[in-house]
Specification:
The chain is mostly helical and about 150 residues long. About 80% of the residues lie in helices and about 0% in strands.
Length: about 150
């Protein structure tokens, strides 16, 4: 009973962090570490102590993969970009992908990235914007990835 209540409280805390990260990224194009690091710690606790879609080892591998993948993309865009101030991917997005990999593992992160990119492209085309907030779309993709892994795989 206490175990279940603690699990629910952790999920509520994670949703609180997700909401604030999404709003901050949507409004100001910044992902605050004040919500990102608690989301990471909650993900570590959940994947280690509770039954989840991935175990701790796959979770850490997903975090490393997410961070490395995003950092490589960021470095490539920074090298080819003429405007060094407004790079398409920032450190907040890189850390966010690491946290997504922590929560979803390698398979879940792959599925979440596909969903997030599709949603982001659709929204960007509809709004005709050069820069899009990636966090809300990654969270939507992560949720759909979680549902996909839970029920289909």
């Amino acid at each position: 009973m206490i175990f279940d209540i603690f699990f629910i409280l952790l999920l509520v805390g994670a949703m609180f962090c997700v909401w604030h990260i999404s709003v901050a990224d949507f409004r100001r194009r910044i992902i605050p570490d004040a919500y990102l690091f608690p989301l990471m710690l909650i993900g570590l606790v959940i994947t280690h102590f509770f039954p989840w879609i991935c175990n701790t080892a796959e979770s850490v591998a997903g975090a490393v993969l997410g961070y490395a993948l995003a950092a490589i993309v960021g470095i490539i865009f920074e090298r080819i970009s003429k405007d060094k101030i407004n790079t398409p991917i920032g450190m907040g997005d890189i850390k966010l992908l690491a946290v997504a990999g922590l929560w979803l593992g390698t398979t879940g992160l792959s599925i979440a990235l596909i969903f997030a990119c599709i949603f982001g492209i659709i929204w960007g085309r509809a709004k005709k914007q050069k820069f899009i907030p990636f966090a809300p779309f990654l969270f939507m993709g992560g949720f759909l990835s979680f549902i996909t892994i839970l029920f289909l795989l």
